[in-house]
Amino acid sequence: MTVLVKEMEHVFGVKEEGEITVTLEEEEEMNGDQINTRERPDSEEPEPETSKPARPHHCSHCEKSFTQLGSLKIHNRLHTGEKPYQCSQCGKQFTQLGTLKLHHRIHTGEKPYQCAQCGKRCSQLSSLKSHERIHTGGKPHKCSQCGNTFKRLSNLKDHERVHTGEKSYHCFHCEESFSWSRQLKAHERTHTGEKPYHHCSQCGKSFTQLWNLKAHERMHTGDKPHKCSQCGKTFNRLYNLKVHKRIHTGEKPYHCSHCGKSFILSRALTKHKRTHTGEKPYHCSQCGKNFTDSSNWKKHELTHSVKKRFQCSQCERSFKKLGKLKQHEKIHSREKPFGTANTVE
C-alpha cells in the first residue's frame, strides 16, 4: 500500500520535491502501524499462512481486496478522508502513523538513507531506491497496454488507470469522482477555498498545488526546461512534453468504448463520447441553448454580450467579428460596371 502525501506532477508518476511515500517495508522499519501477519490492530484471529493467501476483505468503494482486515481499514481512509494522525508541529494530518513519522523528517531534516554511488541522502528508503535507478537506468515496471515503463510499481498502477478509466476517489461535497487521490485532494480545495502554497512572487496569483505554482512561474521567466529529443521543441511542463511525444510515437492511449476510435488526449475522448451520448453539458445562461463543446459555448455567449467592435471605415456598419468586417469591405472595393464610382452598402 502506498500513500502519496503531496501531489505528483502528472498522471505518469513524476513527483514534486518533498513528496512523502510510505511503503510497508518502511512502516515495518519504523515500528509503525503496519498491518501484517505478525502484528494486527484489530481483534481478528491471524489467518493461516499459505503460499498464495486469499484476499477475503473487499473494499466497498473500489475493486481492491486485502488479505487482512486491518489493511482494508487503512485503505478505506482514502475514500472516507479520515486522517487520525496529526503532526504536533504544523498540524498536518495523515491516514497512517508511518506517514506521520516520515513527515516529521521534514521538520528534523533527518535523511538516514545515502546513495552509495553519489552520496545523495534521502529521507525515505523508497526515494533512495528510486534515485539509484538514475545510475542504473532501470525501469522494471511495464504497462501491458501501451508498453510504457516506470521506475516504481506505484507509478505503473497510477498509469494503468489511464486505460481502465477507474475512478475510485469520490468527493463528499459533490458527485465528482477521480482516478487519483491527488486529483480528489486538489478538487476538494475548490469547495474549501484552501490555497496552501505560496503566491506567485511576480503577480501574486495563488495555487492549490505546488507544481501548478512552479509551472506558472515559468510563464514569467520563460523557462522551458523540458526538451523533445526528436524535434527539439521545449516545454515548461514535463506533462506537456510527454503528450507532445505521442505525435512522434503515434501513441493514442484513450479509446472510445462505443466505436473504438483512439485519441492522444483524454479531453479529446471525453468530447468525442458526447457524439454517441448526445450529452450537451454547457448551458447558455442567456437563452438556454446547450452545447457539447466549451469553446462553442463561449463563442455563443459572446453574441449576447459583446458589442460590434469592428466598424467599417467606408460606411457606418459595424460587426461583432473581424472576419465579417473584412467580408463586408469587399463590397466597397469591388469595381462596378460602366466606370461608376464605388458605392457604399
From TrEMBL:
Primary location recorded for the protein, binned into one broad class: nucleus
Assigned protein family: Belongs to the krueppel C2H2-type zinc-finger protein family.
PANTHER family referenced in this protein's UniProt entry, alphabetically: GASTRULA ZINC FINGER PROTEIN XLCGF49.1-LIKE-RELATED (PTHR16515:SF49), PR DOMAIN ZINC FINGER PROTEIN (PTHR16515)
Any single biological process term in GO: regulation of gene expression
Record InterPro entries: Zinc_finger, Znf_C2H2_sf, Znf_C2H2_type
Pfam family, one: zf-C2H2
All residue ranges annotated as the C2H2-type domain in the record: 57-84, 85-112, 113-140, 141-168, 169-196, 198-225, 226-253, 254-281, 282-309, 310-337
Subcellular location: Nucleus
SMART domains: ZnF_C2H2
Keyword terms, alphabetized: DNA-binding, Metal-binding, Nucleus, Repeat, Transcription, Transcription regulation, Zinc, Zinc-finger
Compositional bias segments (type: Basic and acidic residues): 326-337
Region spans: Disordered: 17-59, 326-345
GO CC, any one term: nucleus
Stated name of the protein: C2H2-type domain-containing protein
A molecular-function term among this protein's GO annotations: DNA binding
